[in-house]
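Q: I'm building a small set of examples for a reading group on sequence design. Run inverse folding on the following structure and report the sequence directly after it, with nothing in between.
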């Protein structure tokens, strides 16, 4: 029997994306759900693989289907699936850990060394029509939540995870370095968790402009050649002397990492969300004497996806202003080119479909 095929957006190698073919998957595991993909966000990581063919140790050696920020509609369920049914609209959590690793057993499945994460080599992503997911990695969307919003659940889960690590709570002052999609969502989530002041810092004015739609109480531009000490002073001035309890470094820039340590209040928390250079010059003495907590942060784990869906469902966070462009599935290659060419401008591009 010849297996039926479907179109897929495939990264062949660095610099080359094509629309090619992949088999349509059949449900074999009774706990699996087959989802017809309806919307997929383009992520910075996809664009990075497209440009360079690698992120750290993850190297694209074989052609790989792109996409990991997806939502869709359930079209078939295995015999042991009860939490969703055919016709349900769902967000897809795109990383499936081993069910048996120590990390998974202790609740930190994001750290599972056997993680199969969509569009992270060698695993295929979600930019095709039909995709299989284990039943506990799909999250039902209410009728008033769109497929596009369902796609944004993925980066929002990163923001939720970062805020849980920071233990953001009512009355906090939060600072966010980097007003890209994850930075904006992290600030908005800090607000939803109870932070009363949210300071965004970026080098681009238009990004800071958008931050106002993501609960910014202050949006400060880090001007070219401006020193770390100056931006730290500006933040303190904007806050009227109050010091941030939680600082989110979402840019990956070395100078922002250092400024995060300098601006954070004694006893406060810094969460490193952005990725940049492998090694940086770091003010470790200041970290010590201020007794700061500096957290690494990687994707999301138990409860984060569910909480991200709730933040959207309840209207606590409106993610829609993040979406700046839409392309139909047939124009997915153009969508990626657009993201490369407009890297400084764009926030979130959505690929719709395929039909
Ligand atoms: Zn992503």
């Amino acid at each position: 029997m010849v297996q039926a095929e479907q179109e897929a957006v495939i990264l062949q190698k660095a610099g080359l994306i094509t629309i090619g073919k992949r088999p349509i998957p059949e449900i074999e595991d009774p706990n699996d759900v087959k989802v017809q993909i309806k919307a997929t966000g383009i992520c910075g990581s996809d664009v990075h693989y497209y440009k360079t063919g690698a992120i750290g140790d993850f190297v694209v050696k074989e052609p790989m289907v792109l996409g990991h920020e997806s939502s869709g509609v359930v079209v078939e369920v295995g015999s042991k699936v009860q939490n969703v049914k055919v016709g349900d609209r769902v967000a897809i959590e795109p990383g499936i850990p081993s069910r048996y690793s120590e990390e998974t057993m202790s609740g930190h499945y994001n750290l599972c060394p056997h993680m199969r994460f969509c569009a992270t080599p060698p695993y295929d992503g979600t930019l095709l029509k039909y995709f299989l997911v284990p039943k506990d990695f799909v999250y039902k969307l209410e009728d008033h939540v769109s497929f596009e919003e369902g796609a944004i659940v993925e980066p929002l889960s990163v923001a939720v995870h970062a805020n849980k690590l920071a233990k953001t709570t009512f009355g906090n002052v939060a600072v966010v370095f980097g007003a890209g999609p994850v930075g904006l969502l992290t600030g908005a989530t800090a607000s939803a968790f109870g932070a009363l002041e949210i300071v965004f810092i970026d080098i681009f004015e238009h990004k800071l402009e958008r931050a106002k739609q993501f609960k910014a109480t202050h949006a400060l531009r880090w001007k070219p050649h401006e020193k770390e000490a100056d931006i730290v002073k500006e933040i303190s001035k904007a806050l009227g002397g109050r010091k941030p309890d939680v600082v989110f470094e979402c840019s990956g820039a070395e100078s922002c990492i250092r400024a995060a340590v300098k601006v954070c209040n004694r006893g406060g928390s810094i969460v490193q969300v952005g990725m940049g250079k492998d090694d940086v010059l770091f003010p470790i003495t200041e970290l010590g004497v201020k007794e700061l907590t500096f957290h690494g942060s990687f994707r999301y784990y138990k409860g984060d996806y569910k909480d991200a869906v709730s933040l959207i469902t309840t209207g606590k966070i409106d993610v829609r202003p993040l979406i700046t462009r839409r392309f139909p599935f047939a124009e997915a290659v153009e969508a990626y080119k657009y993201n490369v060419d407009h890297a400084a401008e764009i926030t979130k591009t959505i690929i719709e479909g395929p039909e």
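The chain has two domains: 5-140+319-352, 157-296.
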